[in-house]
Amino acid sequence: MIQQIIAIILLSLAVIMAMPYAQQGLQLLLGMHSWISEILTEVFSGGDTGNLIRQLITLLTIPLLAGIISSIIYWVGKRGWFPYFMQFVWVVWLIQTAALVIASKV
Fold this sequence. Notes:
Elements: H1 2-41, H2 48-78, H3 85-103
Helix pairs in contact: 1-2, 2-3
């Protein structure tokens, strides 16, 4: 019990100290999302179907690219398949989706 209390206090301190870096990372993530969305706007039509496809591709691009890049880096170092590829993609997707939901203007 004491160990868990100490762990949560230390993790809370780490989050507080890393908050500016996390905010910069989320802003970069949202900026990349907007950039990809603008590029895909030129490819897809302005109708409902075109917008849906553009948003879907945009939402999936960043997590998959992050997973592929981390897999390449892992392969260069270990010469093997990145064992947590899909878990990494899911974590990036969840972070990106949460940031988009929070930043969306209703």
